[in-house]
Amino acid sequence: MMNFELTKRYFQKYTSFSENEWKTISSYIHFKTIARGEILLQQDHICKSIYLILSGALIYYKITDKGEEATTDFAFEGDWVTDNRSRLSETPAHLNIKAWEDTEVAFIQQKDLEVLFNEVPRMERLGRILVEGAYVKLVQRSVDLQILSAEERYQKLSAEYPQAFLRLPLYHLANYLGIAPKSLSRIRNKK
Predict the structure, then answer these.
(1) What average pLDDT does the structure give for the chain?
(2) pLDDT-derived band of residue 25, with 50, 70 and 90 as boundaries?
(3) Confidence tier at 191 by pLDDT (50, 70, 90)
């Protein structure tokens, strides 16, 4: 029951739902525990759900040609997680999503989202808000990588996601920032 209340609070951050609407929505919500190191979405598989992190941390990464993990994003409590390109186009994902900590998620399957969009019109509004937010984040990250220095990217990340530096290894953060771990260490030591 506590998971439903927490999930409801996160949903209500974006738009309000009546009790009847929430009753309909909650009938489509599932919960899952993902153990540290477990893959939530595997590269080359189709993403079929959207996830809301209730507790824990996830990282997005791609396996490079050299067999290394290239971190592309991360998510913590209250963040929505999915691969929109894979989910919406029903094509294989280009990346993996893995639990960095034991993680609890609420999720709705894509097929159920389509039903909810018709049954609860405000759900479509929530979906639009989430996709718009993901798009803005992606565009901003692209711009940051092109115009900000490594130090400026580090400062921005530490201001916007201080918990990342407490919960994720530096090599994932360096990777995300597009710099070598040694460079990240140098930048951090300047502070």
Answers:
(1) 93
(2) very high
(3) low
Those residues with Cβ within 8 angstroms of residue 120's Cβ, 6 or more apart along the chain or in another chain: 17, 21, 24, 25
Instruction: Give CA–CA dist 189/191, Å, rounded.
Output: 5
Report d(CA 46, CA 147) in Å as an integer.
33
pLDDT in tens, 47-98: 999 999 999 999 999 998 888 889 999 999 999 999 999 999 999 999 999 9
What is the pLDDT, as a whole number, of residue 68? 86
Two tokens at 125?
A: 């509004």
Cα–Cα–Cα angle for 54, 68, 166, nearest 5°? 40
Please give the backbone phi and psi of residue 31, each rounded to the nearest 5 degrees, phi first.
-125, 150
